[in-house]
Structure formats: structure tokens, C-alpha cells
UniProtKB/TrEMBL annotation:
Signal peptide bounds: none
Native organism taxonomy: Bacteria, Bacillati, Actinomycetota, Actinomycetes, Kitasatosporales
Region: Disordered, residue numbers: 130-176
Membrane-spanning ranges: none
Organism for this UniProt entry: Streptomyces argenteolus
Keyword Hydrolase among UniProt keywords: no
UniProt-recorded name of the protein: Intradiol ring-cleavage dioxygenase
Keyword annotations: Dioxygenase, Oxidoreductase
Keyword Oxidoreductase included in the entry's annotation: yes
Gene Ontology molecular function terms on file: dioxygenase activity
Length: 308
């Protein structure tokens, strides 16, 4: 993955709307002790106890910018729990946003996340997503098939309209909005989402999309105005993905899986590139996983992820 090297764009003051549905500010608590913890620059996992997010952290450099992908919907609900009725391993996602220049937390920034379900399907694009059982081989440490030749935010199959490389946006094809949501960071820069561990689809490693918006404000209609200062993706250690593949409904998927090292969007820079710190009990992953990361962003820049 190549980071956005271009000059800062003019701030996009286009009106943004999100539907109000629940509380917007959530304080992140410390991560409970876990037997398995994962996150490092070289994608290796190690056993240790989980610690509080941000404990002893240094000032983070800029988090990698990535493509928005074709499945972003700028109408996500303001909510903590984005699961709706989707089955999967419970995932608590704890995110912190800081100004990479001052190291101070960004307060009242709007953070979007969206991802596919346990079988690789995106809400809003169910008939375009190519996930679920059938076609391909069961997941393994060394999946068959060559890695994709170019970055793509879309699964293989019927390609979305727009430019290649995952930057082209496709209009939603249905009204589903599961596994999508937005929250405002609290005074310490934290947000917390309740969701499920994502599945996989052909051509991409397991990931979660994110955007950070600043300069807007909450109104009766939702979060409006401002600009997008960061567009990125979160990634999962291979050991955790293989553990997830042992559980239902992930174990029913026969879709060819792309490993983290094969993924053409992950830039191999560990936490800076979006690699989550994961914590869960060994042999009991089905009970839940906690993922955390600190994102260093430049609030004065505009990175909407559509030109990557």
C-alpha cells in the first residue's frame, strides 16, 4: 500500500448527514486480561496480558492512509452497537484518535467504521459482495491462488463502477446498514464500538474500514459539515484470523482467503498501517475479542481515500 503523498486538498465543506440513533460519546475502559494478545510490526503474535488502551503510549506518527473502497455509505447511524442481527465472534473495538502534531487527543471527531459480515458480505451491497460458502478453498495458513495483482476495495466478481484500485464508489443496492456506524470521540479521543469479527472475501485480507471527520458539528439532523482528515483500514494478525476460522459461521466459508502478507493494501508497517492489538482467551475466542489501536491524524489535512 502506498500512502497519500500528495499535497493537502482544499477542505471539503460538503454537507454530511448521519442519522441519530443512540448515544454519540463513549468512554473507553481498559482492556481485560487475555491469554492471547496480538500486534507487532512483523505480524507476529505473542502471549501476554492485555493492558489499558493508550497506557504508556508515545506520540504516534501519521497513521497510513488507504483507499475508501467502493462500499462506503455516508449515512451511517450514530451508535455504539453496530451488530444488528449478524452472527459472529463478538468484537469490542476501542479506538483512540490523536493529533499527530501535538499528540493531544482529538475531541468530538466523528469516527466511521464499516466492514463485511462473517461470510464476506457488505450491508448496502449484498448482491455485489462475493462472500459466503462456495467458490474457493477453505481458509488455511497458506491459501491457494495467487495474490491480487492490484489493490482493490471490492471482492472479485462483478466489479463496482469507478476507477480501478478500490477508489471508485458504488451506489448502494439495498437498504441494509448492519456493521456500519459512527461515533464522536470523547474528551480523551476515545470511541468504542460493539461489532463482530469480520470474515473474508477473495482478494483481501480481513479488515475494517474507517474514516475520521473533523470540523463539523452535531445538529438535529446528525453530524454535518467539516472534512475527512483520515481514511484508513484496520487489520488482523494471521494467528487470530486462523483462530476465527475454527468457529461458526466462519468455518462454513470456502471462499479463498488472502493472508495479511499477501494483501496489497496493508503496507506492512504494523500499528502505523492499521494492525490492531487483539486480546482474547486462547481456545475460547468465540466468547469475544477486544481490538484496540491509536490513530495519529493531521486534522488540517483532507484525506477522503477516493484517489488512492
Amino acid at each position: 500500500m502506498t500512502e497519500n503523498q500528495g499535497p493537502a486538498h482544499k477542505k471539503d465543506l460538503t454537507r454530511r448527514r448521519v442519522i441519530l440513533a443512540g448515544g454519540a460519546v463513549v468512554a473507553a475502559a481498559g482492556v481485560g486480561a487475555g491469554v492471547v494478545a496480538t500486534a507487532s510490526a512483523d505480524e507476529e503474535s505473542s502471549a501476554s496480558s492485555g493492558g489499558a488502551t493508550g497506557q504508556g503510549e508515545a506520540c504516534y506518527r501519521l497513521t497510513s492512509e488507504t483507499t475508501e473502497g467502493p462500499y462506503y455509505i455516508d449515512a451511517d447511524k450514530i451508535r455504539k452497537d453496530i451488530t444488528e442481527d449478524k452472527e459472529g465472534i463478538p468484537l469490542t473495538l476501542r479506538l483512540k484518535v490523536i493529533d499527530s502534531g501535538t499528540c493531544k487527543p482529538l475531541k468530538k471527531a466523528a469516527v466511521d467504521i464499516w466492514h463485511c459480515d462473517a461470510l464476506g458480505i457488505y450491508s448496502g451491497y449484498e448482491n455485489m459482495s462475493q462472500g459466503g460458502p462456495g467458490g474457493g478453498t477453505p481458509p488455511s495458513g497458506s491459501p491457494s491462488g495467487a495474490p491480487p495483482e492490484a489493490p482493490s476495495g471490492a471482492p472479485t466478481g462483478t466489479p463496482p463502477s469507478g476507477a480501478p484500485g478500490g477508489g471508485g464508489h458504488s451506489e448502494p443496492t439495498d437498504d441494509e446498514r448492519y456493521l456500519r456506524g459512527t461515533q464522536l470521540t470523547d474528551q480523551h479521543g476515545y470511541v468504542e464500538f460493539t461489532t463482530i469479527f469480520p470474515g473474508w472475501y477473495q482478494g483481501r485480507a480481513v479488515h475494517i474500514h474507517t474514516k475520521v471527520h473533523v470540523g463539523g458539528k452535531m445538529t438535529e439532523a446528525g453530524y454535518e459539515g467539516g472534512h475527512t482528515c483520515h481514511t484508513g483500514q484496520f487489520f488482523f494478525a494471521e494467528s487470530a484470523v486462523l483462530d476465527s476460522a475454527k468457529e461458526q459461521p466462519y468455518s462454513t466459508s470456502t471462499t479463498t482467503r488472502t493472508t495479511l502478507t499477501e494483501d496489497t493494501i496493508y503496507d506492512r508497517s504494523g500499528v502505523t498501517g492499521g494492525l490492531l492489538k487483539l486480546s482474547y482467551r486462547k481456545g475460547r475466542m468465540a466468547r469475544g475479542v477486544t481490538g484496540s489501536i491509536t490513530m495519529g491524524v493531521d486534522p488540517d489535512e483532507t484525506h477522503d481515500g477516493t484517489g488512492l
